[in-house]
């Protein structure tokens, strides 16, 4: 009886997390995320990541534009780099978009043709630490 209670609690926790992930992917204004339309200068730390639902081609184009143009150091996303794993297009694009955003902190630098979003929560994962410009 006790193990089924734990299993049900675990299932409910997983369902809550999945629901939140889906909601975050469809709502630009969740958890302090802002769009570039906001007029006020942010007072809390901000990172820039790819929007959920951005097309693979858009993410590839963003990575190409940033890395081929040598806008920032892209080596952490290359094989063996601290941000290579998890090896997903979304994670690589998000890391590089943030790196560019932190260097070029101006209104519009996180837009990436509508494929980027500013967030207020730390997106770093494992050994991959996202840059943060001092406010």
TrEMBL record:
The chain crosses the membrane at residues 6-26. Keywords: Membrane, Signal, Transmembrane, Transmembrane helix. Pfam families: X8 (PF07983). Residues 46-130 form the X8 domain. One of its GO terms (cellular component) is plasmodesma. The keyword Transmembrane applies. PANTHER family: BETA-1,3 GLUCANASE, CARBOHYDRATE-BINDING X8 DOMAIN SUPERFAMILY PROTEIN. This is X8 domain-containing protein.
